Amino acid sequence: MNNLYTVIKKPLFTEKGTNLKEAENKILIEVNGDTNKLEIKKAFEEIFKVKVEKVATIKVHGKWKRYGKSIGKRSDRKKALITLKKGEKLDFVEGA
After folding, report:
1. What does R_g of the chain's alpha carbons equal in angstroms?
2. Domain-located, residue 92
3. Average pLDDT of adjacent 10-residue blocks, the chain of 96 residues
4. 66 with 59: CB under 8 angstroms?
């Protein structure tokens, strides 16, 4: 990847992700579909200035949905579960 900011799309704020962050210091984000773990780790460390211990990736296939009479498919996406090293902390929403 040429640009670090094209690797990471957005953080995922879900109930499961919040529980992982509080209990195990893991962060759930959505990433570009054609990136690998090393690129994700490098981009995350350089953008957010934290140390990453481990990166796990999950491919989520889009569901088939009906839109009125027609049938459509939601797009596929890739998620990354990032484990931060001990002592590291990252908060996307501060003051909330």
Report:
1. 15
2. no
3. 85 92 93 95 94 96 94 95 92 60
4. no
CATH number at residue 31: 3.30.70.330
Rounded to whole angstroms, what are the CA distances from 15 to 12, 88, 94? 10, 21, 17
Q: Give the pLDDT confidence score for residue 59 in this predicted structure.
A: 97
| CA contacts within 13 A on the Cβ side of 25 | 13
Across the chain, where does the E strand assignment appear?
8-11, 26-31, 52-60, 64-67, 70-73, 77-84
Total tally of structural domains belonging to the chain: 1
Q: Taking a C-beta distance cutoff of 8 angstroms, is the pair 31, 82 a contact?
A: no
28 is a domain residue: yes
Q: Is residue 93 part of a domain?
A: no
Alpha helices (H) in the chain, listed in sequence order: 15-24, 37-48
Domain region containing 38:
4-84
